[in-house]
Amino acid sequence: MKLGRRRWLGGAAAMVALPLLEAGSPRAATGGEPTRLLAYYVPNGMPMDAWTPAEAGPGFALPPVLAPLEALRDEIVVVSGLRNAPADIDSAGHHAAGTAGFLTGARARRSESAPEVGPSIDQVFAREHGTDTLVDSLALGLSGGDGVGNCDNGFSCAYSRSISWDSPTTPRATIVSPRLAFELMVHGDDPTATASARARRRARRHSVLDYVGDQARDLRGELGAADRAKLDEYFASVRDVERRIDRSVDAECGAAALGDALVHEPVDVLEHLSLMNELIVLALRCDATRAITFMLGNSASNRSFPFLGIEAGHHDLSHHAGNAASREALRVVSTWEVEQFAALLQRLRDVPEGEGTLLDHCLVLLSSELSDGNTHTHDDLPVILAGRAGGALETGRHLRADGRPWAELLVSVLAALDVPVERFGDDGEGPLPGL
Amino acid sequence: MIRPFALAAALVASAACAEPPDALADELGSVAPSVVRRLGRSQYDATVRDLLGTSLRPGTRFPADAHAHGFDTIAEAMSLSPTQLELYELAADQIVDQLRADPPGWARAVPCSPAPAQTPAEARACAASAIEPLVTRAWRRPATADDVAGLLGLYDQARAAGDGFEDAMAQVLRALLVSPHFLFRIEHTAADGEAHPVSDHELATRLSYFLWSSMPDAPLRASADAGRLHHADELEQQVRRMLEDPRAEALVDDFAGQWLYIRALDDVFRDVSRFPHFDEELRDAMEQELRWMFRSFIEEDRDVRELLTGQRTFANHRLAGHYGLATSPYEGVRELPLDTLPRSGWLTTPGLMTALSPPFRTSPPQRGRWVLSQLLCQPLDPPPPGVTAVAVPEGTIRERLEAHQADPACAGCHVAMDPIGLSFEHYDAVGAFRQDDGDGPVDASGVLPSGEAFDDAVELAALIADDPAFIECTVRQVFTYAMGRAPAEADQPHLDQIVERFAAADYRFVDLLVLVVRSVPFRYAVAGARTEDEFP
Q1: pLDDT digits (tens, 9 = 90+) for B155-196
Q2: CB-based contact (8 Å) between A203 and chain B?
Q3: In what helix (H) or strand (E) does residue B69 lie, and over which residues does it extend?
Q4: Residue B301: inside a domain, yes or no?
Q5: A263 has a pLDDT exceeding 80
Q6: Do residue B46 and residue B159 come from a single domain?
Q7: Are residues B60 and B1 in the same domain?
């Protein structure tokens, strides 16, 4: 593939609204801007005493941890008081169960090797609205798997490392390499090649996937039930990928994106995060996908923050047991997390799109697996919604949800994304009142 | 290296052997079902390396597969999402592109090149002749006529679309690498639900992924072709041959890397103000030491109890200094005696002590818990609901931990973890020896729940080495890794038998590998429904 030398990291000001896909985009047909979902996960809960605004409604003051969102106050809704009862299991494993319940609103099956929980809202949304984009969804994160050990008290590591669930038993693999994520989006399609060469390339992919799909179908009949389930995942994946082969990369979004920034793997967490933010903005701006999940850390992350002067691990700090120094350090870490989130929102707002900004056409949802990391509670979750979802969400306020089920919020989010469902998860029997 | 005379004797024995393939079937007993295994990241990389000679390692960028039961190659836990399938597709493209740009590499992978004057039919015959051995190797079983016909179909399609011979063969290679026959280790089980020996090629594949994390090589395929592999002697001979091959380093990377936490050193972060001597060079030296030490159990067929009691290690000059051994500068890694030092085998290595410490101090519970779960297979029950950290800011580490034991909710686990963990307090968070931890002289003595007393970690290591639970646990770890599943109830009699024979073999590590390979679970299959592993 030829590497385009145009830089796309030249700053937000250089970015302009671009034509998206060459063909097949409903936006091209209707002129409307598509609504996108970005689900943003932060590990270990939040210090709620420094998070929850004192006043409900508009005109609320931002508590210390939310201070980085000051310039974006009109773009967000703080939702307090939501309770994720399915995640509140009666044994240890609250980090895993909470992370699994984030986008599913469902109780995770306690099994080390046979997880079952989903599906997650990003996948439900992607099935409806991701069929015309380059990739139906992207599951991104900063952390791969730990090299050793198990995860959380008998719960599959999949619960700790994935928030996106394709089916109740199949997590979407979390991509941590920004370059690999980009390669997945473009998939070898070179916008500078001739039309016939690009068509030939697509035909080759079709022919290979047809062939291996047939093999999987044939094999299925020869295998036992447990093996068949594995082959079914394979077969479903083949079909999923095949559907998307004919979408081609827009010249500007494809070639331009191969700037210098993605040719090496990031060396530290700050660079990693910055590249991931750029990638997310690019993917949404180019309508390469409409469903992105992002994990700032894995469940119960014990990352250290030497660049903040904090040596202790995040999870260790969250179990502060009231220790004043630990609480202060936790507050610094949490504020840093909100800063990173705010920086991404700002980047989305800097991209003009249609009559407004890219952020206006997104629905961004931030939360964590827990409310208070010290006591492993799942009521009063830390929740921020951002973006106007194309007008479906009224922003600039603090909504008190007073103990209502978290899954009701998921129902509301799906509705805002034009996926009307009557119920979702284990206890989302309807939309969240007031949202 | 491994006793060569034993190898020669085995060769003679197998040549003269008239033993029926199922000579061990009288031990059959019960057989637990396995689930089809997908190639893990390191297995994918090793397989494409051995299949096509590529220098690419696409698996290093794949998302991590979920760990279960201590390993990331547990079949049931390895799911496959569309993202992973696309990554396989991308990886195949990249591998094939690299081969195309390297004519000698291409010629090795596709050992047929039609002359310009050849007719299309001759070129097609040439393609078929290249496809058959590729399928046999890549899919780890003899190619069938259908296999070859299917891939020739792709070749024909490509030629009809105007591709030249190499472009068409590139298409065949892509299909070969994205095929479920390549990505999964397919085994056929009898529909009647009866246990039966796996085929010779399936057994060869189990063996090669166990020892090499890769595909069978030509001698192993030849043995399977000849129908010899189910003979006990032949199996043993193959194991010993394969362990002498450099590919057996996969046991260090993937088995010991996870069982004994060598991989945990990849992610350590140390506070530089507290540990100014800790840097990448020292971390690498620690990792090398662990790798050399584990490798010595394979190369020298050592008694696994020496993993805990061994009195020699392998260190470069930098690490020797960290141990406090004054040596004149030297290059590379040397074998060094530990007998003058307060050290004993794996447990007191700087590498393990570092891997089991948070960034800025030691954690006796973390170390104690590791010994229980990894070496004794006694994972602790999780803390009861509602338990939060105990705030005891004052006092020595021993006093602070004793406060945990005073709380009944915490005592159950801390009583088991803490005496073991405190025995390592002479080794700081980078594994350097210390007499004083800053709060006063270190007291590493303790009493196990069994009543056995020890003065320090060296004595504790000897107690653990003598504990039957350590041997049983070692067997379980090897078995879990070899089978890609946790032992089931039906496996227990077979595990007991391995333990018994392992004792008779003086606990030599290579003998353990042989015993697992010769066991009924390793050689047999039974169709099964989805297995359950509900947490107790």
Answers
A1: 999 999 999 999 999 999 999 999 999 999 999 888 777 889
A2: yes
A3: none
A4: no
A5: no
A6: yes
A7: no
Residues in chain A: 435
pLDDT of residue A266: 80
Chain A residue with the nearest C-alpha to that of B59: A180
Q: What are A392-423's pLDDT values in tens digits? A: 999 999 999 999 999 999 999 999 999 999 99
**Binning pLDDT at 50, 70 and 90, where does residue A376 land?**
confident
Q: How many residues does chain B have?
A: 536
Q: Distance (Å, rounded) from C-alpha B218 to C-alpha B199?
A: 17
Q: Is residue B280, in this structure, part of any structural domain at all?
A: no
Where are the alpha helices (H) located in A244-292, listed in sequence order? 251-255, 269-285
Cβ–Cβ of A241/B66 closer than 8 Å? no
User: Are residues B249 and B157 part of one domain?
Assistant: no
Q: Are residues B66 and B115 in the same domain?
A: yes
Distance CA A196, CA B447 (A): 77
Give the span between the Cα atoms of B34 and B301, in whole angstroms: 29
- The pLDDT-based confidence of B534 (bands split at 50, 70, 90) is very low
Amino acid at A234: Y
Phi, psi of B191, rounded to the nearest 5 degrees: -70, -20
B361 & B409 share domain: yes
**Does B498 lie in the same domain as B455?**
no
From the CA of A116, how many Å to the nearest CA of chain B? 11
* ipTM > 0.90 for the complex: no
Contacts of B445 (CB under 8 A, 6+ apart): B423, B453, B454, B455, B456
Count the neighbouring beta carbons within 10 Å of the beta carbon of residue A56. 15
Contact A100, A84 (CB under 8 A): no
Q: Omega of the bond prior to A119 within 30 degrees of 0, cis?
A: yes
In a mutational test of the A interface, the residue from B39, B85, B141, B483 whose CB has the highest number of chain A CBs within 10 Å is B85
- Band (pLDDT 50/70/90 cuts) for residue B296 is very high
Residues B359 and B267 in one domain: no
- Say yes or no for a CB contact (<8 Å) between B258 and A148: yes
Range of the domain at B446: 306-465
**Number of compact structural domains in chain B:** 3
* The model's pTM: 0.90
Counting Cα atoms < 13 Å in the Cβ hemisphere of A149 gives 19
Residues B394-425: tens digit of each pLDDT: 788 888 888 877 877 788 888 889 999 999 99
Distance CA B198, CA B182 (A): 18
Q: Quick one: B15 and B161 in the same domain?
A: no
Q: How many angstroms separate the CA of residue B173 from the nearest CA in chain A?
A: 10
A341 contacts: CB under 8 Å, gap ≥ 6: A40, A42, A68, A69, A366, A384
Task: Please tell me which of the candidates B63, B75, B184 has its beta carbon nearest to residue A174.
Answer: B63
The mean per-residue pLDDT over the stretch B80-102 comes to 95
Residue at B209 is within a domain = yes
Tokens of A160: 């700790």
Best CATH choice for the domain A32-186+250-416 from the list 3.30.70, 3.30.1380, 2.60.40, 3.40.720: 3.40.720
Q: DSSP labels for B357-423?
A: S-TTS--HHHHHHHIIIIIS--PPPPPPTT-------SS-HHHHHHHHHHSHHHHHHHHHHHHHHHT
Phi, psi (rounded to 5 degrees) for B411: -60, -40
- Which residue in A has a C-alpha nearest to residue B261's C-alpha? A148
